[in-house]
Design brief:
The chain has a four-stranded antiparallel β-sheet with strand order 3-2-5-6, with no helix packed on it. A three-stranded mixed β-sheet has the order 4-1-7, with no helix packed on it. A two-stranded antiparallel ribbon has the order 8-9. The chain is α+β, with helices and mostly antiparallel strands and 145 residues long. It starts with a helix and ends in a 10-residue tail after the last helix. It has a domain of 73 residues: Immunoglobulin-like, CATH 2.60.40.1120.
Amino acid sequence: MKLTAYLVAIMTSIMIMIANYSFAQERVLQGKVSSSNGDGLHGVTIQEKGARNFTSSDADGNYKIRLSNPNATLIFSFVGYATRELSVGTEGNLDVTLAPTNTQLNEVIVTALGIRKEVKRIGYATQEIKGSELTKAREPNAVNT
């Protein structure tokens, strides 16, 4: 009697593990993200909508992502380009072209704690650094070499 109950428990456990494995199959999708002129975009963020799966494209614009949902929607985002949402379907390869946008970034102040505020709302001294100052070459001398 005990042997029969023991065998039934083992067989039930095995069946549950097989069922869980068959339902939890993930799919890998790959592709290339490129700009409108055909160049691969490096550093594009690719995220599965509604999940925590994400990756970024390599130097040539290629990417690979594991999908948890067979009918997933991917979100492609990159600074200076329009964000796109695409349904994956049953394809194993998805190439995407992103279009540039002409939006300007607003001025942002980052405080010591990482809290962003507008310049008018800061009650203490601030310093503005322009891009031209960052790229300006300094003359070499014995002190700063």
